[in-house]
């Protein structure tokens, strides 16, 4: 029962083709796994409203439809999920606040704005900490990561699972960036870069000499179009599905931060669910998270290639260039590792190192 996600891809493609575009609209994505497991008992009908930040063609949305399919099939239609993409209901911060008040049931924010609830999540924001997707997935599935999800207890939010937002890359409309000096500008002004509302991200771009500007994601396209900011940083898939290439000429494959998503449900909503429904929602969240990570890995390189086809000049930084960025952001570790927890930072560093030797 995978009709929902297929319909999304077809509709997205049809819309763009009708506009005269000839680009491939989606990569050859893996089908969602078959839905397995027993159906649950009849504990009444439930409709869950889920707000997302990204577009219908994003891995975030496609995997959320798979989540909805699991609940629909295994509850025999008694649990329905209505998904609202494109920041229709607000940005990540606003939607988490709506979960706390019970005016929204579910959302799927980046971990970065959630550090206001669980400060340890800021470990994911440390620059160049997780160098590969293998290291990132191992970190997200670690006991330390589960403790972070459990730490939402008492906040009004129930955190169900980590999945992939992805490696963040820099784009801008001013100039090619191959070094920290290009960010800072030297004889010209530093780039104004939109960041998430997260103090570690602000510290990263300040260390690089930029002018970081926190801004809601839903406001970003128009801000770049109007020249309010020069650029932003997001995974290639987000840059593509948000059409940022229309207002950004340059991209740099910095991979400076790996950011997870967190699938969340309102604690009020959770408490109203029958325990058997709760167990199903948790299982579906984990299964959809695994699928989203797979989709993101398939989408990433394809999205970069598509951005280049659509006119963005993308620079792939070599090891020496990446090392220059790593050196420039060392003050971020000096400031933030003690606040996040040096033991936690060391544990994540060990996880990263272990994947390099396996």
TrEMBL record:
Any one of the GO CC terms: outer membrane-bounded periplasmic space
Record bears the keyword Transcription: no
Signal peptide annotation: 1-24
Highest taxon in the source lineage: Bacteria
InterPro entries associated with the record: DctP_fam, TRAP_DctP, TRAP_DctP_sf
A Pfam family this chain is assigned to: DctP
Family annotation (CDD domains): PBP2_TRAP_YiaO_like (cd13679)
Record key words, sorted: Signal, Transport
Any one biological process term the GO annotation gives: transmembrane transport
NCBIfam families, per the entry: dctP, TRAP_S1
Family: Belongs to the bacterial solute-binding protein 7 family.
Protein name listed in UniProt: TRAP transporter substrate-binding protein
